[in-house]
Amino acid sequence: AAAQLVKLANQFTSEIMIEKDGESVNAKSIMGILMLAAVCGSEISVSVEGDDAEEAMAAIEQMVKDGFGED
Fold first, then answer.
1. Are 28 and 6 in contact (CB under 8 A)?
2. What sign has the CA pseudo-torsion 24, 2, 15, 61?
3. In the CATH scheme, what is the code of domain 2-65?
4. What confidence tens digit (pLDDT) does each residue in 10-21 have?
5. Which of 2, 7, 56, 60 could form a disulfide with 12 if both were Cys (CB 3.0 to 4.6 A apart)?
6. In whole angstroms, what separates CA 58 from the centre of its chain?
7. Does pLDDT of 22 surpass 80?
């Protein structure tokens, strides 16, 4: 799931940040995402800023709703 999120985030020019338990990381960094240690059921928040922010947020929301394409 982390690799899929990073791949998706890198399709956009906007800055995409993921936060868990007060720690924020760049969603375009696989190491940052892995360091969050978010597991299924973790509560995270996503912030997006930039020219394509609306499209980026919509794509991330859809990926989460789809369970990151996993069963």
1. yes
2. negative
3. 3.30.1340.10
4. 999 999 999 999
5. 56
6. 11
7. yes
Strand stretches in the chain, DSSP E: 15-20, 23-26, 45-49
The structure tokens 């609306």 sit at 54
Q: Which token pair is 2?
A: 């982390």
Q: Considering Cα of 54, then 26, then 21, then 3, what sign does the dihedral take?
A: positive
Cα–Cα dist 30/3, whole Å: 6
Q: Domain spans of the chain?
A: 2-65
Residue 28: closest CA among 54, 46, 8: 8
pTM of the complete model: 0.88
Do 33 and 25 form a contact (C-beta atoms < 8 A)? yes
